[in-house]
Q: What sequence folds into this?
């Protein structure tokens, strides 16, 4: 299994600012992902964080808005840039030990943009 | 388009009662189906995983079923406890050419257990 620590757990931010969310895994993992979960909605994949290369973004998400870093096999960050109230959501970090293995999740970051 | 539909959207039951949550999917090619429990303010935690050949899987008071022909799954909770209050998410994974897997998440069923 893998234990994921995500921080901050919540934040209230002013529109136009940026927030960086950190995700630390207690073991080396092949795959790390970032999801967004809006109220009453399912998890939506933002991107796959690739170690040593640029993240792979899903349709509707772009690097300028959601830059991602993954400097090693245990750590990743997601930045929500130039925030607007529409970015208010829960952001979740996830990791998998292998291609089709169980996904482990951080506790999420509840972001409110005012 | 891969989709996962869950019902009911929300459910309120009394402590000690049983309940069943439903998941219908149109995910292809099917690889596996997982049920996750998400407590408020926490990330989802896996309860069960089922592959094509499995039609039932238990984890304590949680029992999942899978009918791959009708593309339906259910999660049955026996003798509910207050701690079962959470959102239950059905996740169905498809295998892409090249070997990677794409999970499709349902919106979840919000379960509230009252004393």
A:
């Amino acid at each position: 299994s893998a234990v994921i620590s995500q921080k901050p757990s919540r934040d209230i931010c002013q529109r136009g600012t940026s927030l960086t969310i950190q995700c630390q895994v207690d073991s080396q993992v092949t795959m790390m992902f970032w999801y967004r979960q809006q109220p009453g909605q399912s998890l939506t994949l933002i991107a796959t964080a690739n170690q040593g290369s640029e993240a792979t973004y899903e349709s509707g998400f772009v690097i300028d808005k959601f830059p991602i870093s993954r400097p090693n096999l245990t750590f990743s960050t997601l930045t929500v840039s130039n925030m607007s109230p529409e970015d208010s959501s829960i952001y979740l970090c996830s990791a998998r030990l292998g291609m089709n293995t169980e996904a482990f999740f951080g506790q999420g970051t509840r972001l409110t943009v005012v | 388009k891969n989709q996962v539909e869950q019902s009911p959207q929300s459910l309120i039951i009394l402590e000690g009662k049983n309940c069943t949550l439903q998941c219908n999917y149109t995910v292809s090619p099917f690889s596996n189906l997982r049920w996750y429990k998400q407590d408020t303010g926490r990330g989802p935690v896996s309860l069960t995983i089922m592959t094509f050949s499995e039609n039932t899987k238990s984890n304590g008071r949680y029992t999942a079923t899978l009918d791959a022909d009708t593309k339906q799954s259910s999660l049955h909770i026996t003798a509910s406890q207050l701690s079962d209050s959470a959102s239950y998410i059905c996740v169905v994974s498809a295998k892409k050419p090249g070997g990677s897997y794409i999970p499709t998440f349902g919106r979840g069923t919000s379960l509230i257990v009252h004393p």
